[in-house]
Write a structure and sequence with these properties.
Blueprint (H helix, E strand, L loop, with lengths): L3 H28 L14 E2 L17 E9 L5 E8 L2 E12 L6 E10 L2 H17 L6 E8 L21 H5 L14 E2 L3 E4 L27 H42 L1
Parallel strand pairs: 1-2, 5-7, 5-8
Antiparallel strand pairs: 2-4, 2-6, 3-4, 4-5, 6-8
């Protein structure tokens, strides 16, 4: 081990171990949240513009934040989303396009209004909401409250279903079916990336027979990411393994020399 070759290998093992130790420290530093979100913060109702801006991703601390917004429903853009559970019962969400009031530019927000147990009930609710939205188009804007939730991302239509069937709550998937959009955002119209799970199943315009969406408060993190802690321990093990490899290689070389020496003695 004192030969120059193995001393050089030891220095290399020290460098590798130091890198692994730094990575472990970095993982450990990210495993503990030194500034966790205080309990109950998500239950404080805030204006939606104070939480997220159109076109932006929802910041992690605000997932599930209760917000309020005013706007007008766009008639013809109420759509069902399948595979939604309310207290462990599968059904449909009825969603709509809300044109936000008071925004500098025309801005749309996808809203999950309420839950229906069957597609037939969801379609009946859509007809009632469409009729009410057409009548109230020139009325005062409706005020809604609910939780703002991140886009689930588009999904494949169900087997045997129509290509336009929506199975995930994704504003990107919904706006492709909104009548004033052509598969992409309409020119001059901004769209919120997250969606609103409304607490009012009437949408502020009509009792369409929908149930309120079950949307409990998000779980409060304990401030420790155990997956990162596990990764930090892994890096420490890797650092120790670098020294073990150096020791094992040196020992194997020594054993070969001993066997060659002993073998040479026997030949004589």
């Amino acid at each position: 081990m004192l030969r120059p070759r193995w001393i050089a290998m030891l220095l290399l093992a020290l460098v590798v171990a130091a890198i692994f130790a730094w990575l472990g420290q970095w993982q450990l530093g990210h495993a503990i949240d030194t500034d966790p979100v205080p309990e109950g913060v998500t239950e404080e109702v805030r204006p939606i513009e104070a939480v997220v801006q159109p076109g932006e991703y929802l910041p992690e601390p605000f997932v599930g934040q209760r917000v309020e917004v005013e706007g007008r429903w766009v008639p013809g853009d109420f759509l069902p989303v399948s595979g939604r559970y309310n207290d462990a019962v599968e059904g449909f969400w009825v969603t709509g396009q809300l044109r936000v009031e008071g925004a500098a530019d025309p801005t749309s927000l996808a809203v999950a209004i309420g839950w229906a147990p069957t597609r037939e009930a969801a379609e009946a609710a859509i007809e009632a909401l469409d009729a009410a939205a057409a009548v109230s188009a020139d009325a005062d804007p409706v005020a809604l409250a609910g939780r703002v939730i991140s886009d689930e991302g588009p999904g494949m239509p169900p087997a045997g279903g129509a290509p336009t069937d929506v199975t995930r709550m994704s504003p990107a998937a919904l706006l492709s079916q909104w009548h004033d959009f052509d598969g992409t955002a309409a020119e001059g119209v901004d769209v919120y990336r997250p969606y609103l799970a409304s607490t009012d199943p009437t949408g502020g315009i009509a009792d369409a027979g929908l149930d309120a969406i079950s949307s409990p408060a998000p779980l409060v993190s304990n401030g420790v990411n155990w997956l990162n802690v596990f990764y930090a321990v892994e890096w420490v093990i890797f650092a120790g393994f670098a020294f073990y490899i150096w020791y094992r290689l040196a020992k194997d070389a020594w054993q070969r020399e001993v066997e060659e020496f002993e073998g040479g003695g026997e030949d004589e």
